[in-house]
Design brief:
Layout lengths: L3 E7 L5 H14 L4 E5 L5 H5 L10 E4 L2 E5 L2 H13 L2 H7 L2 H9 L4 H10 L1 H4 L9 E5 L3 H17 L3 H15 L4 E7 L3 H18 L4 E7 L6 H8 L4 H26 L3 E5 L6 H12 L1
Parallel strand pairs: 1-5, 1-6, 2-4, 2-5, 6-7, 7-8
Antiparallel strand pairs: 3-4
Helix pairs in contact: 1-13, 3-6, 6-8, 8-9, 10-12, 11-12
Bound molecules: adenosine-5'-triphosphate and magnesium ion.
The site of magnesium ion has 4 residues, from α1.
Length: about 290
């Protein structure tokens, strides 16, 4: 089974979680069996979609669509249990020399365990994960880079034995763009765009990854800019609003230009006036198609 893996990242608050949910919905409607994974201690989707519970084991929320919450600790515990079943591996795993180096890089361990779980399908290693597509609502920029750096760091610290082998295999998997896709969500605003641009360049330089850029909350204007410019001159609230929209439109196209200097893989998502969760996610899914 070939499994697709998608990572959704970007600055805090730009719309990663709703975009990840929309991407997962899109894929599930294409007929793939999709798992939407959130990496946090407390579930966002539980409240957002008003679900009874979201935990480590997948919960079905729609046809072909399940959601799960994976912490590093839960992934590590599951993996350890899986390994211990294989006696000889367990022995190697807990062998002294390995454990020493292992403890030295322990801060990266939860990250490694998460990526080990996320990539377990294509690597055919670990407990079964029977999904065609995994969409990860991943960490924000800085922590996301630390997540991706974990396997390489571990592979350098523990070069031999199953730990070194698994770390190298996870590292190879996250760099394999036939398996993993990366989506940087940003707003058409100065700071998020700057962060997105830096992240884009770092992912390219460090991992040879070419993410796409998702410009979220774009104000879509159906009226031509010229008409707005005209309305701007009116001395009224309408005039002021037209001035605001004209400014916004110009600013947005400047931000779009910045994104297009990085990549031609850009998606625009409109700012959607919708308070209900599923209709919002469905509209974003439409824009992603
Ligand atoms: N295109 C859109 N139109 C309207 N509202 C949106 C759009 N995208 C996101 N939102 C809203 O913006 C808010 C932030 O979105 P979301 O929680 O997905 O961001 P996030 O990047 O995951 O945040 P965090 O970094 O805190 O996890 C939410 O209230 C969401 O409903
Ligand atoms: Mg979020």
């Amino acid at each position: 089974m070939k499994q697709e893996i998608h990572f959704v990242t970007g600055k805090g608050g730009v719309g990663k979680s709703v975009v990840a949910a929309a991407l997962a919905l899109c894929k599930s409607r294409e007929g793939q069996k999709v798992l939407l994974v959130e990496l946090r201690d407390q579930s966002f989707y539980k409240d957002f979609f008003d679900l009874p519970s979201v935990g480590f084991q997948p919960t079905a929320i729609k046809d072909n669509l399940s959601v799960a919450l994976w912490t590093g600790e839960a992934c590590l515990q599951e993996y350890a249990r899986h390994l211990i079943k294989v006696e000889s591996l367990a022995k190697l795993f807990f062998e002294n020399a390995v454990m020493k180096a292992f403890i030295n890089v322990a801060p990266a361990l939860p990250e490694l365990a998460i990526l080990g779980k996320v990539t377990s399908g294509p690597r055919k290693h670990g407990p079964p994960l029977p999904f065609d597509c995994i969409v990860v609502d991943a960490f924000a920029t800085g922590h996301f880079i630390a997540l991706l750096e974990a396997p390489k760091g571990m592979a350098q610290a523990v070069q031999f034995g199953p730990m070194g082998e698994q770390s190298r295999s996870i590292d190879a998997c996250i760099r394999n763009q036939d398996l993993c896709s990366y989506h940087i969500v940003t707003l058409p605003e100065e700071l998020p765009m700057k962060e997105a641009s830096e992240l884009y360049q770092r992912l390219g330089a460090e991992f040879s990854i070419n993410p796409d850029i998702i410009l979220n909350k774009m104000v879509s204007l159906t009226m031509p800019l010229a008409s707005l410019q005209e309305a701007k001159s009116e001395d009224s609230d309408i005039g002021q609003f037209a001035a605001y929209l004209a400014h916004q439109a110009e600013h947005q196209s400047a931000m779009y230009k910045k994104a297009s200097e990085l990549t031609n893989k850009i998606k625009n998502i409109p700012l959607i006036f919708e308070t209900k969760s599923w209709p919002l996610v469905e509209k974003i899914a439409e824009a992603l198609k």
